[in-house]
Amino acid sequence: MKRFLLLFSMIFSGLLFSQTQLNLIPYPQKVEFQKGEFIIPENFKLDQNLPKQETEYFKKHFSNLFNFMYGKKDEGIHLVNSLFPPKSINESQKKEKYSIEISSDRINISSNTDQGYFLALQTLIQLFEQYKDSGKIPAMKIEDEPKFAWRGMHLDVCRHFFTIEEVKQYIDYLAMYKLNTFHWHLTDDQGWRIEIKKYPKLTQIGSKRKESMIGAYVDNTFDGKPYGPYFYTQDQIKEVVKYATERHITVVPEIEMPGHALAALSAYPELACTKGPFESATKWGVFDDVFCPKDETFTFLQNVLDEVINLFPSQYIHIGGDECPKTRWKECAHCQELIKKNNLKDEHGLQSYFIHRIEKYVNSKGRKIIGWDEILEGGLAPNAAVMSWTGIKGGTEAAKSGHFAVMTPGSYCYFDHYQGDPQTEPNAFGGFTPLEKVYSYNPIPSELNAEQSKYILGVQANLWTEYILDFKQVQYMIFPRLFALSEVGWGTSKPENYKGFENRVVEHFKILDKMNINYAKSIYNISGKVIPNSNGVSYELSTSQDPSGIKFTIDGSEPKSNSATYQNPIPVSKEMTVKSAYFENGELKSAISSQNFSTSKTTGKKITLENQPSENYSFGGAFTLVDGIIGNVKQLGKTWLGFQGKDVVATIDLGEKTQFSEVYFNTLDNKGSWIHFAKSATISISDDGKNFKTVKEIGKDEILKAKGKINLKVGNQSAKFLKIKIENAGIIPAGNPGADSKAWLFVDEIGAQ
To answer: pTM, whole model, 2 decimals?
Structure first.
């Protein structure tokens, strides 16, 4: 009988659930619907023993939804909080665990801590938002806790500055969606944004720059307008930390070292390896002048960290550690002597020495350091945690060696990347990270075993602001991707049910509208995907809306409500421009998407790569090189493949012996971002795919002369296989940004005519 009743209960609950879609983000770990419903009354009664701070937050937010009277009558909503029974608490239970039980006459919250209670209130606010119009909430029990302890968002205030009130709004967004860590990027080459009383010139000089780069990086254009001084006083910092603490959010400050130091060096040039003078950077990118590892530099940094530690109670202090060129250290007599004196292998060992020394000091203050994954260079400091941004390798390596890691790979977690078709989006840094890709991320690397996985603290998304000029653009870049990050960090994301998540996102747009938050509507726009067919390629269109609303043209004209209705992938067999848009009741509801195609004898053919592209610039994989789309030099998202330190070696199977006399491809030159033209290129042909004959070779001079747009005459050839090797520039030479680092090689379409 018990077994039957349990089975019946499960089926009944499933039936109730299927009829009720909760629009919660992040979705809870467990929801059990029960019989009955809670009628939302006119009055609201709160238990007297509720945590005061969190309850006041709750009441303030509810005043925006309802005109409740609190505690005026002994009736209405009885909101009660009770602690979990002590016997049920064990070490494995997180402090953020909570449960909500909604019955016909009351709402009961159980939690271990005030933080758990606060998270429960966020869920409750969303439930009332969903059901306020109907006036009744289904009876249910929610049992919930996050999978990851670190669920973070980062904000760069150095490239562009945001006010204290805007930073508070940012923190509110995190609280609404149960993120618990705010990573505040306070220093960089382009500006020093935190008051340090012992070193006033940091903000007097380092908080401003003479002008700023504008537009796409390749344009190399500046606005000619002084920027700053912009910085936060220590009183303002304390105000933000208090505000975040009240919302159970930890603020982790970042003070960059040893690289990204130009703003600091502009104020105190004696901390560099050369005499300067220096100025805060006006361009974006990476610069050779960094902190010199001498005693006066460490004294300076320790004094800075003393003031930072006094302002921020966080366990971790972020010390940067990324993108530190070694050019100045190689040329510096002091640095070379330090390498010899400490038996260091090279300049990478010197970076490890630098990080170890800073860590030892931070540890002496009862804190720990965390840094970008370049702090692994030369050996990781004993107690350091790693923030893995270049991919998952750094975090994986850290976890395997018993170090904690926060996963924030650029390919999934960089919100300065494009989130929709770059041609319909505001100018962005590059990359292509749409909502669905963020939602698909699993922070636990597959190669870690259960024990190693415990060292993955969690997940974080980063917002770098080179191309984000104001706070409205900040909002646009984080929403709705913050929703996906929230659910990934909570541990309830289900990529196989992305459509269900997307439906919840659309419902949350109503909340953003009410709050006057500017968000990206990219999911409404038409998405295009190139797929191979027997004659080349086809262009597949999709939308989050009713697909019958997609209208398109293939002659370059603007689609109208009476244009062709999309039904099947559009064959592409010649040069053409496909424009598409979504219409509803004859009215245009989306941006107009446009895609140019330039076909050749390689279009849609099978292609293999010996070396795979970087995760950040791998959208579409090898097929991107034969999809008939020429890359836009101003938009690195979606149409280019990027390779750091690797050659492109591509073999294209033409299917049958094919005649051609020209081979073309494009590469980029953007030295500020470490992107260099190819060093050489070799074209080979074969009939069996094994034995290749070289038919053309070109060197660096010819590539430079062609400015990366390579069109090679190869004579009249007939072959089944075409192989092209495009040689990476290798190690970036001295005098260039990122010197001594691996160069990037970007390639788009490989065609043959």
So the answer is: 0.90
